[in-house]
Amino acid sequence: MYRYFYYLVFLNMLANIILFAPRVLISHRFEGSTMAMLLSIPIGSTLLIVFVNSIRKFPGLGLPEILKNHMPNWIRIPFIIYFLSIWFVAGMITVISFSEITKKYINPDISSMVIAFAFICIIGLIARLRSDTILYSMEILIIMNVPFVLWVLYKAVTNNSMNYDACMEIVSHVWNVPTWDTFAAGTYIFTGYTNLVIFNRLMGTAKKMPFLWTIPIVGTCVLATSFLIPVGFHGTMNVNAYIYPWISTSDSMRVEFGLVERVLFIFMYLYTNISLAGSFIHWHVCLEFIKELMPRKKDKSYFSWIVIGVMGLTTYLFSYLFNDQTLYQTGVYFLNIRFASEIALVITMFMLARRKKQ
Predict the structure, then answer these.
(1) Structural domain count, the chain
(2) Are 80 and 289 spatial neighbours (Cβ–Cβ below 8 Å)?
(3) Are the C-beta atoms of residues 14 and 222 closer than 8 Å to each other?
């Protein structure tokens, strides 16, 4: 089951490309983004390694069970409520974002609310399944989509429109002091490991996770391409004019002899699958947290339907409140809060592991 851990991390890295993190880095490209990226790699890798090695001290247990065994209820319950909110908002923002993206770039004649409703139904139906079924579904989506994503990246870096001088111009600002926003965006590519709070239940009994050293290498490549390729295509100044830089970048590429000439449509299909997978994983984790707070209803199937229905309705109602600007600002706030919360989660897990060892 170890491969599913790497799927979780890799899926989050891929989802990072199209949403808010690249735009945050691009908006601060002259104000410390390069330095933030360089520092985000050791910071994010350290958080990942510490968390994974700590939670693996509790083989077969998720975070709710670990907290139940080592914390009083007056700490455990608020802790779980706070983090289930983080996971719910992560899924909600992704659903709303892709509803707007689909309306703008695929079919402007359909209301984004109709699209959001369709996405919510799909994600809700999958999120209530068993954890092992969720992982199997994620594996299928990754195997089906990743080769084509790698092909799109290859087409980008070898494209004649790719201006590497613009990339070098951005890199020359490496000594500028980064901001918290850029740190939060840069470390987001590693955040997939936090899903072990639930999926650690399925990761076997061995206390070590092999090949962790590969994650910083892959993460560095993903972070560099997600930031620099849009700059290379659109220039150091114009790149900040786009709401979704990577979608505009994919629309700048053509497959001359392909069945579908515009890479945009291929890119949108791939990332709709990837983002939906990320959303149903987030909502599944949120659902499992809620089940832990409601032990009497935990085994009743209708309870999962009720929770998913409330999550879906909340997401649908929030869809009315967002436009492109407010959605982006909400995404930035979420990334900032997520980074601080992730640090707190890692420290908590590290302390619990130390207490068990003693």
Answers:
(1) 1
(2) yes
(3) yes
